[in-house]
Amino acid sequence: xxxxxxxxxxxxxxxxxxxxxxxxxxxxxxxxxxxxxxxxxxxxxxxxxxxxxxxxxxxxxxxxxxxxxxxxxxxxxxxxxxxxx
Length: 85
Description:
single chain; mainly alpha; 4 helices
């Protein structure tokens, strides 16, 4: 097993993790789950697969080393952004 996987396994098995309380959004999500007939918009868990053209645009961007942060508005002619929009 690779070293990183071993390290992550040790962390996951640590008793210290049991001491960390769930985040506020997780606690809120649990409460929302208890309400019947509510459209849940809390955690953004998609129930559909990412379209192929968006996955390919992400792969192309990574292969072209185009994986750096941009301004909040994004960049013009950005392949992944164009595929999503």
